Amino acid sequence: MSPRTLFEKLWDAHLVAPETADTPAILYVDLHLVHEVTSPQAFDALRARGLPLRRADRTLATLDHSTPTLPANAEGERPYATPQARAQVSKLEANCREFGVELHGWDSSERGIVHVIGPELGATQPGMTIVCGDSHTSTHGAFGALAFGIGTTEVGHVMATQCLLQRKPKTLAVHVEGRLPQGVGAKDLILHVIGAIGVNGGTGHVIEYRGSAIEALSMEERMTVCNMSIEAGARAGLIAPDETTFAWLKGRPRAPQGEAWKRAVAHWRTLNTDDGARYDREVRIDASRVRPTVTFGTHPGSAIALDAPVPAARDAVEQRALDYMQSHAGQPMAGTKVDMVFVGSCTNSRLPDLREAADVLRGRHVAKHVRMLVVPGSEAVRRDAEAEGLHEVFRAAGAEWRLPGCSMCIAMNGDMAAPGQLVVSTSNRNFEGRQGKGARTVLASPATAAASAVAGHIADPRDYLSMSVQEEQAA
Amino acid sequence: MNPVIRIHARTAVLADENIDTDRIIPARFLTTTTREGLGKYCFNDWRYLPDGSDNAAFPLNQSEAKDCAILVAGCNFGCGSSREHAPWALLDYGVRAVVSSEIADIFRNNALKNGLVAIVVGADEHRWLLDNPGVDLSIDVREQTLTLPGGNVFHFELEPFARHCLLEGVDQMGFLLQHAGAITAFEQQREAA
Ligand code: SF4
């Protein structure tokens, strides 16, 4: 057989029927993740046709987008933003009961953001196809799974048939060689990559990230990178599984055990791009040149080093974005006054992300005029963080420690900024109004977010990280 | 889905590049559990002023844009989230086709599955359409052509299966269900391996 890319191996292994000139391929889905926002109309479609959900055992649901991150009151009532938000959550609970889907709801000790809990439970595994009615499904590609977001009509297709109709996407290799400098992390790297290839640079493609800098990343860092593939327009992001992947998955509740584990790992070792396989496009990035990176405009491609000057607008649309952000061409983003800081989202809400923010905040205080929210990605992250006392670090610094959920990443649950406020956010989208109508979002790493909270303006985290932490990161 | 064979309508232009799905319908309107009635929220934060009145600066609020069913948009329209609420909102708002030089993958998929014709044209045609709002345009799905008022005809690409589904009003779930046997065979073969 001719040499194949990792993507082609995953694609070929899931073909129920190959594509023809007239029809797309029928692609089998191993794991379908479901949340409350993009599923109700799909469950309705099943009901309208009198169909069962084909593989409840391959379907996993959680509550994350519309859920409040403040606790229930004494009567047990949760502070939903609107009655519709509450109704949407009840609807998923009822749908999961009716169709026999495992739901990590309010009573689950594993509830959390859909792209955080899939890997945590070991439900996400190398070699799988994984879909969800959510564009950041690309996160799971960090494990060498072909994972992508779908619309609600397709959610219905998967519920009914466990399959999707797909045209084969193209492949784009992003080679990242060299070493990330001290104080520079995966979030800086992916913002840098999107800035380099553009917000539509990956359209129609599946990205495979590879190279020494990618191999050196932890699983959480790889998830941060793959998570934002969609912000370059890509269908999915992929990283070949390796010892780091296997060690991370071993022993997780849904991971194979015993002999099955050994067989699985043997298979997973074959999931990489063969020598001589061809990508449709290739891009090279030098990791040693990446600096703490932030956005200055209203899409994630408008990324620059935080101490670099904001580029001048090339047209009226770019000028409009600068005006909206109140960013000034020729001046760096560093020093811009901050109103809110958000640490959370499926990009940066895992334990190492929270540690990174806590390392900056320990023994310091959030500036008086800044409000900071720290929202763990899951109940498991919350437990682990509290066991380490991170919540106390956040609270002592004056930040709010919340319950798991999407929160200010999408601002559906009432957690949001006021018009005009500037938010330094560890999430993935800085679109106009994403964090509240008129709110201005600057995307950044957890370390930059925390440093900016302390300084009261966008600040370089390298000035706040203790030498010991920097050395650890370098080690 | 009703068949979509031909669309003859006037164009309205939103020239901004990278119009994302949060701009098409802000997330706070996604707590709905149905797909109906989202047109009133379409482009909500752009279309209305903070007091709820119409924003005169929003191009689709201009009187010339009334009844325009073909939206010509800047490059990379529909980027961002996978929310199908975006095409649902556009259709309910009266948009039947979107034309751009690039349309984000997931949005285009979602749009076509709902009968919203999403068309990618070349840079020159795109430029001309952006510069000339309010022209009468004919879209022929069968012939994959776009005819300008002067009679100039452009060809556009359309994935053959999506085209078939538009022309016949086929919904893709039915097509997949016809393959239930092959799906079962695939599952059994894998479980045996
Ligand atoms: S955290 Fe944000 S990007 Fe991630 S699933 Fe939730 S809303 Fe989507």
How does this structure look, described?
The complex is a heterodimer of chains A (475) and B (193). Chain A has 475 residues and is α/β, with parallel strands linked by helices. Helices cover 32% and strands 16% of the residues of chain A. In chain A, the strands form five sheets. Chain A has a five-stranded parallel beta sheet. With 193 residues, chain B is an alpha/beta fold. Helices cover 33% and strands 17% of the residues of chain B. Chain B contains eight helices and seven strands. Chain B has a seven-stranded mixed beta sheet. The longest helix of chain B has 13 residues, at 180-192. Chain B starts with 5 loop residues before the first strand and ends with a helix. The mean pLDDT of chain B is 94. At the A-B interface, helix 2, helix 3 and helix 5 of A face helix 4, helix 6, helix 7 and helix 8 of B.
Task: Give the tags.
heterodimer; A: 475 residues; alpha/beta; five-stranded parallel beta sheet; 32% helix; 16% strand; B: 193 residues; seven-stranded mixed beta sheet; 8 helices; binds iron/sulfur cluster
What's the short version?
The complex is a heterodimer of chains A (475) and B (193). Chain A is of the alpha/beta class and 475 residues long. Chain A contains 16 helices and 19 strands.
Secondary-structure topology with pairs:
The complex is a heterodimer of chains A (475) and B (193).
Chain A: H1 6-13, E1 15-17, E2 25-28, E3 31-34, H2 40-49, E4 59-62, H3 83-99, E5 102-104, H4 114-120, E6 129-132, E7 146-149, H5 152-161, E8 163-166, E9 170-177, H6 186-197, E10 205-210, H7 212-215, H8 219-227, E11 236-238, H9 243-249, H10 258-268, E12 281-286, E13 293-295, E14 303-305, H11 316-325, E15 340-343, H12 351-361, E16 371-374, H13 379-387, H14 390-396, E17 400-401, E18 422-425, E19 440-443, H15 446-455, H16 467-474
Helix pairs in contact in A: 2-5, 6-8, 12-15
Chain B: E1 6-14, H1 21-24, H2 44-47, E2 70-73, H3 85-93, E3 97-100, H4 105-113, E4 117-120, H5 123-131, E5 136-140, E6 145-147, E7 153-155, H6 160-168, H7 172-177, H8 180-192
Residues 64-65, 113-115, 134, 136, 345-346, 406, 409-410, 427-428 of chain A line the site of iron/sulfur cluster.
